[in-house]
Design brief:
The complex is a heterodimer of chains A (149) and B (157). With 149 residues, chain A is mainly alpha-helical. Chain A contains eight helices and no strands. Chain B contains four helices and eight strands. The chains are: A mainly alpha (149), B alpha/beta (157).
Chain lengths: 149, 157
């Protein structure tokens, strides 16, 4: 395994940690430890490897799960926003609209459950990377308390 | 026209390390290990399904140029090559506990799905493998399910 391949694999391990623990508080130092890198190096390398910084990836993961819950559950929008890791309903609604182009309630009104296995739905319904936003979004900085992934 | 799927290629970076994982951790058995000179033909299969083999293949020369092989290895270690295979089990949670104890890297814990209970893991190189415990008995698809899916398809099209 070359040095690049080894770094890829460690970064993938950190990305998998985001996928598993997206709903809880996350912080860059803990993820950087998973990748065996310093936090600053981790952010640079994550972006170089996957095309977006880790907080954007986290944001898309949370929005994708929120979209699934809006389609498939009867939970309130507030409950869904908190369940996928956003710190407040306002942050969730702003970020959702910026990423998806619709408010959560509008999205729910025109969506139905998708007839495909969950892993396929997860991969193919995640908002595109270019749709992610920074302003008003929930980032690692919004996490309530740093914990390991 | 065809009878079965007998061999599926799975890219790996190191065949000995792949054996440690697929045989040592997951419980596959070696079905072919042949030094063909230009490549090592290495296949494994599950004892319960000996006619379906995984070909553990290193991407690179002579099949691929060094440059293209490097690109494939790069994608593999980024987790970008998708699903390598889906394995079935009688007890997904027990399998998860057992393999977790062996240090296998899970990306998803056992989760109830309409089609059973499943979880996901990665091999040492970045391949994703899903583990599914199918539900007992046939899955009943109701008219309400069909109507819901049709509505979903119309909405998503």
């Amino acid at each position: 395994m070359s040095a690049t391949e080894d770094a890829n694999r460690r970064l993938l391990r950190a990305r998998d940690a985001i996928d598993r623990h997206f709903a809880g508080p996350m912080d860059v130092p803990a993820l950087a430890r998973v990748a065996l890198m310093s936090p600053a190096h981790f952010i640079r390398e994550f972006k170089a490897t996957f095309g977006e910084p880790p907080h954007r990836y986290l944001q898309r993961r949370r929005i994708e799960r929120a979209m699934a819950l809006l389609r498939d559950s009867t939970w309130s929008i507030t409950e869904i926003g908190l369940a996928v890791g956003f710190a407040s309903p306002g942050t969730f609604s702003r970020t959702f609209k910026a990423v998806v182009g619709q408010s959560p309630s509008t999205y729910r009104g025109c969506s139905r459950p998708l007839p495909a296995p969950d892993c396929i739905v997860r991969a193919w319904t995640r908002p595109a990377a270019h749709a992610a936003v920074t302003a008003g979004s929930s980032t690692f900085g919004a996490a309530a308390a740093p914990t390991g992934p | 026209m065809f009878n079965a799927i007998t061999i599926t290629a799975v890219p790996v970076l190191d065949q000995d390390e792949a054996l440690d994982f697929y045989v040592g951790s997951l419980g596959f058995e070696v079905t072919n290990d042949v030094d063909m000179g230009f490549m090592r033909w290495l296949t494994v299969a599950l004892p319960s399904d000996p006619e379906r083999h995984l070909l553990l293949e290193v991407p690179g020369p002579p099949a691929l140029s060094e440059e293209v092989g490097s690109q494939v290895r790069d994608l593999l270690t980024k987790g970008a090559l998708g699903l390598a295979c889906v394995l079935t089990t009688d007890d997904c949670r027990k399998t998860f506990e057992k393999l977790s104890g062996k240090g296998v890297e899970f990306t998803q814990e056992p989760t109830e799905q309409p089609y059973g209970i499943d979880c996901a893991l990665r091999d040492p190189f970045g391949n994703q493998i899903r583990v599914t415990q199918p539900p007992q008995g046939p899955v009943e698809i109701t008219e309400a399910d069909k109507a819901r899916w049709r509505a979903g398809a119309e909405t998503s099209s």
